[in-house]
Amino acid sequence: MLTSLYVEGNSWFHRLPVRVKLIALLLLSLSLFATQSLYLLVPAFLLCGWLYFSLGMTLRQALARIGLVFFTILVLAAVNFFLLPLPEVAALVLRLMALVFFAAAVTATTTISAFMDEITILLKPLERIGLLNAADVSLALGLVLRFVPDIFARYEAIREAHRARGLPIRPLTIIGPLIVLTLKDADTIAAAIDARGFRRQ
Questions:
Q1: Biggest alpha carbon–alpha carbon distance for the chain
Q2: How far apart are CA 64 and CA 52, in angstroms?
Q3: d(CA 152, CA 167)
Q4: DSSP 34
Q5: What are the backbone dihedrals phi and psi of residue 10, each rounded to the nearest 5 degrees, phi first?
Q6: What is the pTM (predicted TM-score) of this model?
Q7: CA–CA distance from 187 to each of 70, 175, 183 (Å)?
Q8: How far is CA 128 from the centre of its chain?
Q9: Which of the listed ranges 72-76, 166-170, 192-196 does the model predict with the highest average pLDDT?
Q10: Is it the case that residue 155 has pLDDT exceeding 70?
């Protein structure tokens, strides 16, 4: 059974229109990358963190969704620690973590169908001048959001299977089966999409 990143709830952020949340994410991104001031970045980080953790998830569920991304940010910070002054590294970490919190909050409070509908509307002007097919792009983005948790779950299942057999857990021995299973699912989904005529031919 596939799961979604959406979290059931009735918070004020759940009730905001999708377009407002996407515009807010865009403006927040531009604002955070336009400043190096820790006096602005620290409050932004705290507010985005409060927003994310107030959406009704348990602490474990909330951390599980963003833990890998935060780990990647910390690795990036460790590398930059030897290249940049400490205030710049702190600004980088705070900026990225604030954006992750906010983007995760948008994802957790927006259904995939609502997200796809909004992306289709926003891309209509580009479709009219022949640059892309708005429905196809929104479908692709929706599928990515839909299957991210499933891919993580499959990764955990393969890792547990290795552990149960007493095999050493190495990234290269897990990535191979994960790619094969994901591609098989992709073929099945593509066939289902074509059978139902979701895409225009």
A1: 57
A2: 13
A3: 20
A4: T
A5: -135, 35
A6: 0.73
A7: 31, 18, 6
A8: 29
A9: 72-76
A10: yes
Chain-centroid distance, C-alpha 7: 14
Token couple for 188 = 């099945």
Task: Please give the C-alpha separations between residue 115 and each of 120, 140, 146, in angstroms, as whole numbers.
Answer: 9, 11, 11
Rounded to an integer, what distance in angstroms lies between the CA atom of residue 170 and that of residue 162?
A: 9
Nearest to 48 by CA among 71, 32, 67: 32
Q: What is the pLDDT of residues 63-120, one digit of tens each?
A: 888 888 888 899 888 988 888 889 999 999 999 999 999 999 998 998 888 888 888 8
Cβ atoms of 123 and 132 closer than 8 Å: yes
138-to-112, 123, 177, 190, 200 alpha-carbon distances in Å: 10, 9, 28, 15, 13
Residue identified by tokens 């820790």 is: 38
Q: Which amino acid is at 83?
A: L
